[in-house]
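Input.
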Amino acid sequence: MRQPRVEPITGGRGRPFAASLLEPARFGYVEAEYALEGTATRYRLAPGATLTRDGHWRAEPAGTAPFRTRMLVYRPTDPARFNGTVILTWNNVSAGYDLFGAESLELFEGGFALACLTTQKVGIAGLPPEPQGLAAWDPARYGTLTIPSDDYSYDIFTQGARAVRSILGGLEVKRVVAQGASQSAGRLATYLNAIQPLERALDGFILAIYFGSGSALEVGDAVVNLGTMGPVPRGGGLRGSNLLRDDLGVPVFVVNSELEAIACHSVRQPDSATFRYWESAGTCHVSEQVTREREKKHLRDGVKTFPLPEGINRIPIAPLYESAFHHMQRWLTDGTPPPSQPKLEFASDPPELVRDAHGIAKGGIRLPQAEVPLATNSAIPRAPDIFSYLRGTCEPFGAERLRALYGDTLAFMTAFEAAAKRAVEAGVLLPRDVAGLVAEAGDCWRE
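Output.
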C-alpha cells in the first residue's frame, strides 16, 4: 500500500493559495497545508479492455514516477465536533490554477473535515502564456512541487485519501468522500469506474456538474486548456458516453445543472441503493453569483481573470451541493439515501429541453428562482465560445410582466418564500439557505 511522506508547508507569502474566504477559527476550525511526496503509479487499460458504456473498466499499473504536491486541510479543533467524514476535493484546474470550494457552511457547521488536493499538473505549472499555477504564484512556498503528468493523478488521489486519515490532529477518520466538479468530475468518473475497484480507498463519491464521460487514463503531456478551444457546435458539443459504476458498495451522488443534464441524457441511469442523480431546472455550469464570490478570492490572491459579461445565468447551483454534503453524511452513517428527484423533460433527438411559457426548463429540481421567476434563466449560451457555453443566460422580466405575474412585491415575496420552503421539504435546499435566497430575491425585485 503506497503511503506518501507528509510534511507541513510554510514560508513564501505565509499563506496558502486559494485559502477559504471564511474565517475558519470562527467555526472552531484550523487551517493547515501539507506537502505530499512519494512515488505515483500511472494506469492503462488492461489487455482486451475498452472504455465500455457500462463503466465496468479494467485498468492495470503501467509505470511509476516521483511526485510532490500539496493538500490544504480544514478540520475542527474539538474532536467532539468532528463528524468522522473527510471531503477530499479533486481540485479543478480548468482555469489554469487550483479551484475548489472551501466556503461551504454545511462543511464547517456540519463538522466535516475538508482536504483540497492538487492532483493535476496544471495546478502547479499553470497554463501559457501567463502561468498562474502554484509554482508561479509563490515559488518560495511551492517551487519544489511537481506532477509529471495527469496520468499519475489517479494514484496521487488514492495516496491523498490514505494520507488524510493520519494528518488530522488525532481526529478519528471514519470515512473519506471524493468530491469533484466539471473536469474534476470527469476524472473522478474514471477513478470510480477503473481505480476504485483496485484500491478501495474512498467511501463515497460526489460528482458535480458532470458531463457524463470519464477522462482518459493516459494523456501523456497533454492538459486541458479551455482558451484554445474553438466554437461550441450548435446544440452543445459535449455528450455523455458512459455510466457510473454502482456495484462497488459505496454511494455515488451526481448533482447537475441543466447544461450537464443535456450532455448526460443518453447515459442517465436510475437511482439505486448506492446511486443518486439530481438535475435542476434553470441552472447552468457557472452562475453570476458564484463568479462574483470567486472574484473576491482572485482579487485577494492577485489572480488575473476575464471581465464578467452581462446577462449570464443567475441561479446558483451551490445550494444543491450543500444539500449533497448533508445527504451523503446521512447515507453513510444511518443508511438514509438522498431523496430521489424528478428529471428534466426532454423532447426530440438530439435531446432538447422542454420549456414553459417563461422559457424555463420543465421538470427537474425546482429551486425557488425557477419556480417563482423574475427572469428566464437557462443554459442557453449567449455566444458560441466555450466560456459563454458554460455561463448560460439570464433575461430579466420587465416591470409590466412582473406586475401581471405577481401584482406587487409582497405577493411575489410570499410566493417565493413558499417555493423555498417546498424545496426544503423536498430535501434539495437546507433551511439555513432560505433566508439568503429570499433576501436576494427581494433585492432583484427592486433592481
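The chain has one domain: 5-356.
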